[in-house]
Each structure stands twice: as C-alpha cells, then as structure tokens.
Amino acid sequence: RCMPQVHGAVRDTLAHTRRVMEIETNSAVDNPLVFPRPAQSAQGPGSPNMAEGDILSGGNFHGQPIAFVLDFVAIALSALAGISERRLERLVNPQLSEGLPPFLAPGAGLNSGFMMPQVTAAALVSENKVLAHPSSVDSIPTSGNKEDYVSMGMAAALKLKRVVDNTRNALAIEAMAAAQAHDLHDQKTSPLLQQAHQQIRSVCAFMDKDRVMYQDFEHISDLIRSGALAEILPGR
Known about the structure:
Layout: H1 3-25, E1 33-36, E2 39-41, E3 44-49, E4 53-56, H2 64-92, H3 115-131, H4 153-183, H5 191-201, H6 214-226
Antiparallel strand pairs: 1-4, 2-3
Helix pairs in contact: 1-2, 2-3, 2-4, 3-4, 4-6
C-alpha cells in the first residue's frame, strides 16, 4: 500500500538529480576562469583589445554536487529494488500469495518455479545495500596535497552503474514473476497491465516446467532498458 510513496520518492530523487546534472554539465569548470572585456583599441573604434578583463581563480571544477546526487540515486534505486523483491516474495510465498501455487510452479513439488529467481533478487538487493554507502563522504588528498579535498564522484558513478544494473535485473525478475502469476489465475487486470503483460510475453514464454531462466531475465531486462514498458504509461 506504500508503493506510491516509495516509487514517488524515487522519481523525485531522479528529477532532482537531473536538475543538478544539467546545471553542472552546462557550467564553466575551468580554473582560472577568464572573462575578457573588449576595450577601445589605440587603432581606433571597432578594434577590440582583449587585454582587459577579469581572471578569477575558483573551484567550480569540484565535483561535489554531482557526487552527492549520484550517491542519492544509488540509495533511491536500492530502495526501489528492495520493495520490488518484497513484492516478489508475496507472489512466490503461498502463505502470502492468496491462492497462487508455491513459487508460481504449475507442478508444485516437481518444479522449483521461481524459488531460485527470488534468491537471485534477494542477492541483488543485498549487494545494492552495500553499494548504497555514499562515496561522497570520503576524500583522500592528491597532487601534493593541492587537491586536498576531493568529491569521489567517479567512485560514486562507477558504484551507481552497478546499482542500476542490479536494480534493472531485480525488476526484470519481478516482471517475469508477475506475468507468471497473471497466467496462473483467471482474474482480469487493467488494460495498461494487460499491455505490460503482452510486452513481457513477447520476449518470455510462460514457464510450465523448470528451465534455464537467465535468458528470459536478460530479455526482460533489455525490455526495461529500452523504455518499451515505460512507454505504455500515459503522460510518463
């Protein structure tokens, strides 16, 4: 019931990050910054003399704003993957799934179904929790102590890339399980979710018995990466 609050907070985090990234990407980061002022030349009107102006020493090259938001996104995506895994648990656990077979396996007892995919999702979520520790709280001096306080933004970016991959894969596992659950009962769903189900089924078949599943998850992960599922939503 709190999914909108969690997902909404993630969307707000991404929107804030985009604003910061756009500002920093379009800023001047040279040091020093040179602001020339055209002056009247001795050669007469219209002849510029760029010898006048301001040369300002500053630290706008410092990556702290970017490092902060990259760490913030890692935390937000870790939460997104975490709540995804909890929804997955409700699908595969017969004590919580309200009539679905254990681990969404049609032949319960003969097939493991989504038992191990749920373990995989839990492993991805657990790794994210480690990676969500902010890099930007760290610093180490370099360049003869001239660079004595650094943002660690590159470390934050590399760490975030791993979190993004883990989160997308966790969502892919949930999406495949949700499609399986949909096919195991006769209840109707909304038109938008039906479209999402069709998208998933276009790259991944119903699992009637145990099979190697990593290719299915890769196909759905690619579907998520392409934005095809998000395009279903109006006004996204």
